Amino acid sequence: xxxxxxxxxxxxxxxxxxxxxxxxxxxxxxxxxxxxxxxxxxxxxxxxxxxxxxxxxxxxxxxxxxxxxxxxxxxxxxxxxxxxxxxxxxxxxxxxxxxxxxxxxxxxxxxxxxxxxxxxxxxxxxxxxxxxxxxxxxxxxxxxxxxxxxxxxxxxxxxxxxxxxxxxxxxxxxxxxxxxxxxxx
Length: 185
Hints:
Elements: H1 3-8, H2 11-58, H3 62-78, H4 85-102, H5 105-118, H6 125-135, H7 142-145, H8 161-184
Helix pairs in contact: 2-3, 2-4, 3-4, 4-5, 5-6
């Protein structure tokens, strides 16, 4: 029954139809609130582990911090509410940094290799490749990491972004100062 049909129908049918619509909306809202609550709980677990790992880092207990970050990554991969790389990329970055501080190059190499194979389309994979190449003493060609098609070359006659910003600022200053100048006259 469409919205216009509800208004054309008798009063009891209108009431029943609107009640059904509101019950359906209430159920959907309750489901969304439950989903949000579950996500909040999962994210709270992630944050508490990160906080503990940060405390271990401050006390120079890097291996315990790495273990907590690894637990966090596993938890995120298994939990349906926070199973998204953006929720645990911080933990990945911290593990890379801590392996570097501990000079555990072999563990770092295998960790980076796993990351690169598991997330080949991640936007930050190039920094992992660069780090791995440095560890392997391999010189990378930057042309493989940078796509020349994405580089925008300036066209003669077109204003650069900096020039457009300067013009905008200049014009906005003129427009602001003009009314005050006329008010003084």
